[in-house]
Each structure stands twice: as C-alpha cells, then as structure tokens.
C-alpha cells in the first residue's frame, strides 16, 4: 500500500489536443489548437507574439505594448483568447462539445471589433486600425 502512495499520479492530457500534459503554458500557448487560434489573432491584430511560459506572457505584453491603441488591442486579444480557450476546454470536459479553432478565432475577432467600435475614445483609434478591424 505504501508503494502506491509513492507512485506519481498520472497527469491528465490537454483537453484541446489530447497530445500533451495539460498545464497553463501548454493549454494557452503551446497546444496545437491554441496555436491555431493565436496565429490567426496575432495576424489580424498585427502583433508579434512570442510564445512564453504562462507567468511571463502578461509581463511581456505589458512591457512590449505599454500604451496606446495597439496596447489596448494587445490586452483585448490576450484576455479574450485566454478566456475563450478556457471556455472551450471546459466545454470539452463538461459537455463533450468540440468547437473548431476557426470558429473561436471568428468569435474573438468579432468581440475585439465590437469593443473597438463601442469605445468612447474613438478618435484615439488611428485610421489604419479602423480599417484593419473594419470599425466605422
């Protein structure tokens, strides 16, 4: 019986790819599924993203994108993508629902676009960003 307690518990696989052990860094940044989402979001947002460990990601974003419209977009992209990835993981676990990375990407882009369109400081958005996100 004591030998059983000394055995390491098996680590559960990532609920999005089932290929690797799930931890924050893998789930949000290194998983095949999340990389597909990040690739599309960073392309749309024109963000140069470096795949860092979970603890360093926020620090990097704050340092790299300190202020201005691009910083707001970076913050929205980071928060929305992490939120949507976590929600998708939970749907896999609790509802056996499997959404596509393409659909998630579309949802995140629409969310960011809506937030940019409804901001009170619209005049702060350069025309390039308005065109990029199709904000009137």
From TrEMBL:
Please state what the protein is called.
Reverse transcriptase zinc-binding domain-containing protein
Database matches in InterPro entries:
RVT-Znf
Which Pfam family would be a valid example here?
A: zf-RVT
* Superkingdom of origin organism: Eukaryota
Q: Which residues form the Reverse transcriptase zinc-binding domain?
A: 2-38
